[in-house]
Fold:
Amino acid sequence: MAENVTEVLTGAGVLAAALGFLVYASEGGGLSRATDSYDLTASFRSVEGVTVGTDVRLAGVKVGTVTSLALNPQTFFADATFTVANGVEIPDDSTAIIASEGLLGGAFLELQPGGSPLNLASGAEVENTQGAVSVIALMMKFAGGGDDTGAGTDAP
Structure:
């Protein structure tokens, strides 16, 4: 009898923990949309490493989240929509860059503010963008030598 009570209490504890994790994930994982932010868009040649939920950072501080990615069939660029926290005003000549946390780190969307006195309104597009740089393409370029001058060849 005592064994059955222990099993029931253990099962209830596991169920409560699972429910707690589910609530935590739905709040922190972006399932509930924050109303204290505004949307911006940007178009990139490549968004390699960026997914929905990726951080948007300004000076290394998270100020928003990528909310959608879609291929534009006319330009063949990736259109990204992302949020920025209210109170963080982005000048209209700012740049959106797909940056990396290091050689093996993940990607994030970095905002580099411009110097314009005018700010982007909700729904506006960041015109200046820089897409993701492929680490493999850079390594192949470096490994290939890239010496087009002919210097160092054994030509007589």
